[in-house]
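User: Second chain of the day. Same drill as before.
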Amino acid sequence: MKILILGGDGYLGWPTAMHLSENGHEVACADNYLRRTVCLNEDVSPLFPTPSLPERAARWKSVSGNDVKVFIGDLTQWDFVSEVFGGFKPDAIVHYAEQPSAPYSMLSRRAASQTLNNNLNTTANCVFAVREFCPKAHIVKLGTMGEYGTPDIDIEEGWLNVEHKGRTQRFLYPRQAGSLYHTTKVMDTDMLWFYVRTWGLAVTDLMQGPVYGATTPESGDDERLMPFFNYDELFGTVLNRFVVQAVADIPLTVYGSGGQIRGYLNIIDTLKCVRLALENPASPGELRIFNQLTETFSVKQLARMVQEAGAGMGLNVRIENIVNPRKEAEEHYYNPTYTGLKDLGLEPTLLTGEILQSMMALALRHKGNIRRETIFRGVKWA
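Assistant: Same format as last time:
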């Protein structure tokens, strides 16, 4: 297929581009470097330098022989969107092009406004572009398990059959987002569901849990091909942060009691899930939703696993419970269904001590780059 990746420079976008091109697809990436710009403006930086998107595409071509076409521009601007979609004419679109940080979305009015503008207008432009340039294309959008919140019932895969006064109807599963970022993802889903019903689009919405890791089969140990690896409070996912804190001898910052349970997956499995969704597309007029995770942990469980793995490498990893800056339930029921992608053939890469130690080894190579002051700045929800 001809696959267009929106947000192709990001933590997930670039590894997905390599993975899909290695599996025989023609791939193009579009990005405006929003994540890089925000990191620069907020004075946070990745663990190791990340080449530009054209540089990475050139490096990937040299080691694999695979081409990845690159478009640099702003997907909230229709002129650029029409240039990309009209020129490439994709069979499928992978939509990652959103401001991905809950803490950043809660940082200030300016950050909130930027999150709303970027995330909603990019999704809308994607829909309009599919309608105009490639109406049969399949949209695969990265959602988030954070859309659901922490309900006191099992979390189904996107839909819930409701019986009320003797009648039954299927509805989108009730959602109660935990940040402005997560709220924009709820709005994405609602927008896509509207246009699926109105224009008959084919859409798969992947409700993904927090991702960890930096190495994929395509990158190997070549750090020039690895993703943009943040470890700071704004953009670093929890396990990536903990690994860097362990290496830097900074106590693991567990928010509150640490009883918050979420569904996690290795970055390798993100790539597999997206490819499986693309190669087994939704039907026209269908909004298909998969919960994209492979196992669940509480934050305190993750901290203890990092502590144990660090001890195996001679690291004295400490854990510190701090006042929770977020508005969230710290002890709660959490039982999500996640069978859809396994039914398509996903074989999960489960979290092990060996995987954690490989992540720590990468962080140790760049220990001199770790900026302690960026790991916890105390962005408060209220």
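The radius of gyration is 20 Å.

User: Great, on to the next one.
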